[in-house]
Here is the input.
Amino acid sequence: MNISKQLIISFLILLLLISVSGCGTAKTEDPSVSETDKNTVIIENYKFQPDEITIKSGETITWINKDSVKHTATGDSFDSGLLSKGSSYQQKFDNAGTYDYICTPHPYMKGKIIVE
Here is the structure.
């Protein structure tokens, strides 16, 4: 098999894995989630805003995607799956520590959760 066919097959497998990983974790618009909540991260302009947030143990972070492209919030212990525009994802953090995360399709997008 030549290199171009191998690349195409690898790309298709990657797309399949990305689409499967997002099943069942995201929510569509949720009126109970406030964008001004101190525990909310807005995904917009290919950035997590804020990119660092400090919470207390037991609190929940909500990510809301405002971009027209799909993004994730993916750390070692959590993964939002692909979030479409207007979708949100919530993750509760029970253990103190620092949780770094990225957007899988755009790994230059980085964020940090500090749990006290």
Summary: The two ends are 53 Å apart (CA to CA). Residues 3-21 form the longest helix (19 residues).
